Structure formats: structure tokens, C-alpha cells
Amino acid sequence: MIGSLRRLGRFGCNALESLGRAGGFLLLSAFAVPSREGFGLWVRQMHFVGVLSLAIVLVSGLFIGMVLALQGYTILVEFGAEQALGQMVALSLLRELAPVVAALLFAGRAGSALTAEIGLMKATEQLSSMEMIGVDPLRRVVAPRLWAGFVALPLLTVGFSVVGIWGGYLVGVEWLGGFEGSYWGNMQSSVEFLDDVGNGMIKSMVFAVVVTWIAVFQGYDLIPTSEGISRATTRTVVYSSLAVLGLDFVLTAVMFGGLS
Amino acid sequence: MKRSKTMELGVGLFMLAGILGLVFLGLRVSGMTLNASGDTFRLEANFANIGSLKPRARVTMAGVTVGRISAIELDTEWYDARVVMELDSDLEGELSRDTTAAILTAGLLGEQYVGLSVGGDPEMLADGDTIRDTQSAVVLEELIQQFVSNMVND
What we know:
The complex is a heterodimer. By secondary structure, chain A is an all-alpha fold.
């Protein structure tokens, strides 16, 4: 009885401790004074995290937009409301699907790679060597990756929405023969720039911080063995997916749900 | 060094594409216009019932969009809805005083908008004038109620 209570206590203490460590880590590295070559390092990471993720994000966005239009059209046409297709595609992409799916893909494509890279640096003692020669690994290794993630994911989300809306247009108007004017017209009259596009962007910025933070911290904090690296990579994907989906509900409730 | 240059170019293009995408979302998807508010003029119209008309809805004439609704408020003098419209300044002094405004619906479930049609009065509407002759939105419940009471009377 007392033993199980103590185990629960130890679990709670450990969880709080690692949360505190992760918070301090985020603060220290995100607001570290940028070094002179910081911009170059950031560009290199932007290339890896952003430009190279573009293909998977855009292709997924295209197919999700196409599927939305296909499903939406067959359902809406039963109510004679197929002119509301553009509105449905645009709102569901801008508010929910683009931020969430782009963040999930980002966690799988870029987050896991960040964890593995930093983890291997730690396992091969590159991080401690940097400290030995007086280079702060938080500034040199972690901060550029963190900021690259913060900037890249919102941009990827915009790309996802644009390509998805175009994919919906392709299926709904070009292939199924919906009316082009009502696709764009209903969309324009129902989408508000600040409420829909803006809140979607806020969501994706929150997801960017959470996903990149989890990925980088898991890499920095892992047990430096080959097993530790594989565990940490898995944890990155699992934790960031759960965090994105859970936070998405909270953010949706605050932004659109009228729960308060 | 050359590799780093192409990398910078790629990142630059990526960020530019993101910003252009945001502009696309603003202009094409949410229908914002870059026109300054200077080249519009205001007209007001009182409706007995506006249905589900919303601010920023279209104002059309013969199906062509000529402006947007900028505000909807309750007129406490008559207890009806006062709708403020911003129309293209091209139309200033071109609409006759007996122009009518009707609230129409695009399709069965589409959005509601205001349709204007001109009359034959030689005097023209100026900035800030009120359209007298208006036709309220069709409310489905009222139609059904009328239909049912007609059936009972017959």
C-alpha cells in the first residue's frame, strides 16, 4: 500500500521534473543570444525542416482537398446544396485539417529526424566536446533547429491549405461539374480572414512550438545508447501527435466552440 | 559555398511561397479586396426582416456585385433593421430615388445578399441617402405558416 503510494509519488515527481527541465531548456535555447553564424545555421535547418518537407505536405494537402470535395459533393448533392462545397472544403481545411495534418506530418518527417540527429550527437559525445571547447550546444545546435521549426510549420500549413483548396476545386468543379462561381463565391462570403485563416495560423504556430520543442528536447535528453535513440525517436512521434490532437481540441473550443 | 547559396535560395523561395499562399488565402478564399475605402459611397436601407443577412455580404445589381454591406443595426425608432451598404463610387448619382432593395438567397441554402434594381425617378440617390422601397428576406417558417392558415380558411 505504502509502496504503491511511493511509486505514484515518484512517478509524479519524475514527470514534473522532466517538464521543468524541458521548460528551462526551451527558454534557454529559444532566447539564446544568436551567434554570428546563427543565421547560416538557421538557413541550413530551414532547408532540411521546411523545404524538404514541402513535397510530402503538398501532396497530402492535394489528396485531402480532393477527398473532401469528393465526399462533400456526394453528400451535399443529396440535399441539393452542392453550391456549399467550396465553403465546406475551405472551412474544414483552414480551421482544422491543414494545421493538424501538417503538424502530424511534420512530426513524422522532421521531428523524428531532429531527435535522432541530436541524439546521435549526444551519443557520440559531440555535444560535450562542444562544451569543452567553449561552444554552447544550446546556441549552436538546438536554437537554429528550434527556430527553423517555428517558422517552417506555419508556412507549410499555408501551402497545405492552398493546395487543398485547389484540389477541392479540381474535383468539385472540373471533374464532378459543380458551378465554379458558387465554389469561390460561397467560399468568399463565408470565410473571414482573421477568424478562419488567422485562427488557423495561430493553431499552427502553437503546434510548431510544441512539436519542435518535443522533438529537440527528446533528442537532447535521451539516454545516449542506440536503444535510447530509438526509444526517443518513437516518443517524439507519439508525444507530439498526442499533444497536437489534444491541443487542437482545446484551441478549437476556445476559438470556435464558444466554450469558455 | 555554392551548396550553401542554393540552400539559401531554396529557403528564400519557400518563405516567399508561404507568404504568397497567405495572400492567396486572403484575396481569393476569404474575398478581401485591396481597394481603399475611399472610392465607395454609402446608402442605407431599412428592412422589416433581414433573415440571416450578415455584414460583408454582397450587394448586387442584375447579378453583378457592386458593393458590400458594411453594418447592420437595429433602428429603435421603427424597430426594424437598418442596413448600411458601401457601393462603388461609379454608381454615385446613377441610382434613381425609387431604387428598390430586396434580400435574396443564392440557391436553396446559399448565402443571402441584397439585390438592387433601379426605378424611373429623374432624381438620383446621393451619398448617405436611404432607400425607401425595400423587400424583406423570405423566412421559410412564415411562408409555411401562411400556407397552413390558407389551407384552414379554404
